[in-house]
Design goal:
This protein has two helices and eight strands. By secondary structure, it is α/β, with parallel strands linked by helices. It is globular, with a radius of gyration of 16 Å. InterPro entries: Anthracycline_SecMetBiosynth, Glyas_Bleomycin-R_OHBP_Dase, Glyas_Fos-R_dOase_dom, VOC_core.
Length: 125
């Protein structure tokens, strides 16, 4: 019997200030806000549910993994987020090729100090 894992269903991101984080993910990144309860807020991002929450226990109080949000046009997304005050670690740049596809990324820090990225896959030139 195989385990059968098929996709990521939910990702949790630790936050210090839940209301500030809600505003960032809802208003700056434009993720779809779903609901808030007991120190947690939930968003949808495609088929993945994103949970923002304050750590209940010191064992869970750590920076998040890097989340990579796919966008169609990384230059346009970089421009929009920059005008919204997002401070990027650098401009979008090609990180490599997967056959005839070029993978581009740009990294930034969210309102809670977590590293986040936007990424785009485009035809290689």
């Amino acid at each position: 019997m195989t385990l059968g894992i098929q996709k990521v269903g939910q990702v949790s991101i630790n936050v210090r200030d839940l209301q500030r984080a809600i505003a960032f993910y809802r208003d700056v990144l434009e993720l779809q806000y779903v609901w808030q309860t007991n120190g947690m807020a939930f968003f949808t991002c495609g088929e993945v549910r994103l949970m923002l929450g304050t750590p209940e226990d010191p064992n869970f109080d750590h920076p998040s993994s890097v989340l990579y949000y796919s966008v169609d046009d990384i230059q346009a997304a970089f421009h929009v987020l920059s005008t919204r005050g997002v401070m990027f670690h650098g401009p979008p740049h090609e990180i490599g090729k997967l056959g005839d596809i070029a993978v581009w990324m740009a990294f930034f820090t969210d309102s809670e100090g977590n590293t986040v990225a936007i990424q785009s896959e485009v035809p290689a030139v």
